[in-house]
What we know:
Elements: E1 36-37, E2 63-67, E3 73-76, E4 83-86, H1 91-102, E5 116-122, H2 127-145, E6 150-156, H3 162-175, H4 180-189, H5 201-210, H6 215-224, H7 228-240, E7 245-246, E8 248-252, E9 258-262, H8 267-278
Helix pairs in contact: 2-8, 3-4, 3-5, 3-7, 5-6
Amino acid sequence: MDETSSEKISENSQEVNPSSEKFSENKPSSEKFSEKPVDSNSSSNKQRGLHGPSLGIGAGIAIVSIISVFFAINVIDDSPELQFEEKPPSQDNNLDALSMFTANASPYLGDENAPITLIEFGDYQCHFCNKFFHETESGIVKNYVETGKVKIIFKDFTIIGPDSIGAANAAHCAGDQGKFWEYHDELYNNYTGENNGWAASENLVKFAKNLDLNEEEFTQCMSSGKYLKLVESSSTDARNLGITGTPAFFVVGPDNQITRISGAQPYEVFNNIFQAELQK
Length: 280
């Protein structure tokens, strides 16, 4: 994929109004960070050796939407941009939000009792997801996950092609053998582009061998499509949350305040939000 072609903000994204948010807007250079938008033509607690994945934003403007209740987001479609309206919190809202972020998802990376939760929606074939993995996530894992301050959940939003779905299914099959996150890393470390065959079935089996997984068990899981429904449901969750591209992130703080981050933002963006949450 041409990196320039994807460095644009989706029409359905909302630019933060600095006067109404707790965190100042971060404005990276216009060519550096972007998000893979949804292509309408495409189909679509195990600890590990800790690592780093990906995220993006377009037109050089970081989108950080602060949502003060634990998932009381009301989408308003009367303008070209996606807008959010806060609602009073309720027990039902809390349960719905928790389910939206934790169902159809990976095992936790880190201490499940960590005060902050970082949820990533990504596609293993997404260029900017890969960019986030290699440039940002390792710092988050070292400074926040390994120190028990943050736990990470990965959710699939398979928007690029059939190999995205196959790779997502394979990662969950590896999870059956306790190596979801290792396989997740293996996928991003072997990324070479979009829809060029690197994530084809035969390569997914090779990646499993690299991790010393039981090949017979893994292949049976793969061929049966054991986790295809879970992957599809996770993508549905993404759409219901109004996500229009990958990667996309939600930070849930100790007080259940939600911060939405769109695009492959640098480490500093996440660091600032985590520090603010930990001071509460």
